[in-house]
Amino acid sequence: MKQKITWFSVLALLPFAVLVIAFEIVPLIGMILDSFQSDNAYSWVHYVTALTNPYYFKGILNSLQISLYSSLIGIVIALVASYSITQMPKKIQTIMITFSNMTSNFSGIPLAFAYIILLGSSGVFTLLSKELGWNILSSFDLYSWSGLVAVYVYFQIPLAILMLYPTYSGIQKSWRESAALLGASPLQFWWHIGLPVIFPGLVGTFSILFANAMGAYATAFALVGGSYNIVPIRIGALVSGDAISQPHLGSALAVILGLMMIGAMWFNERMMRRVRRDLQ
């Protein structure tokens, strides 16, 4: 049945629409137009530079690599953790999901500061391990690639738990009982039934984690400043750098980053459609 749109619903939506247009649509259009500007003419030169210059291309590869590793580690840990949560009483499940929701929002500069206090050069755990004569953290450098992956994994895990937790509801208890009655082992049940059911949700969650890591800026900048070459930091340096400012090239990099994130979100939407269809 066709739903009637009332004037009240349109007026109620108006403030949100104004905010979206003023702070998302207009800046986005301005950024896209700016990325094609070169010597008062439109050109693809900034995109060519972003994709062919070894320095910027290395930044794209570093971003892809960090996003891939942090998403893989995060989703493996979240896969086991979210399953464990579903096996607990409902009250504990609610507490754990609330806790995951809260920790998923702990990111950016506060998260980087927390890691510096704990695992930095003069961090609590770093000094404690030296005092006790342990060499656990001697080869770990928080201000390096491995340090960035460790911090990224932290904010990937609770987000992945929140997204994977509902997918387990698609597995009916009666399926396990039927499989057991037919002589299937738990491993055989998960390989032939459980994993195919949660696989679309797993892939969709991975794509969200990947996009989440690709766009992370504040955490990385607070931790390594401009010393590590990833796309968000390069965009920030090109737009507001002290030495050299190239906002048009920064806009082109931002559009490329946005397209990669849109691709990940599109893939997630396709996978989640399959999850919703399986849950019906």
TrEMBL record:
Pfam families: BPD_transp_1
Annotated keywords: Cell membrane, Membrane, Transmembrane, Transmembrane helix, Transport
Its membrane topology: Multi-pass membrane protein
Any Gene Ontology biological process: transmembrane transport
The species this protein was found in: Brevibacillus brevis (Bacillus brevis)
Bilayer-spanning residue ranges: 7-33, 66-85, 106-128, 148-168, 189-211, 248-267
Official protein name in the record: ABC transporter permease subunit
GO CC terms, sorted: plasma membrane
Domain ABC transmembrane type-1: 60-268
Localization of this protein: Cell membrane
Entries under Gene3D superfamilies matching the protein: MetI-like (1.10.3720.10)
Major localization class: membrane
Signal peptide positions on this chain: none
Family: Belongs to the binding-protein-dependent transport system permease family. CysTW subfamily.
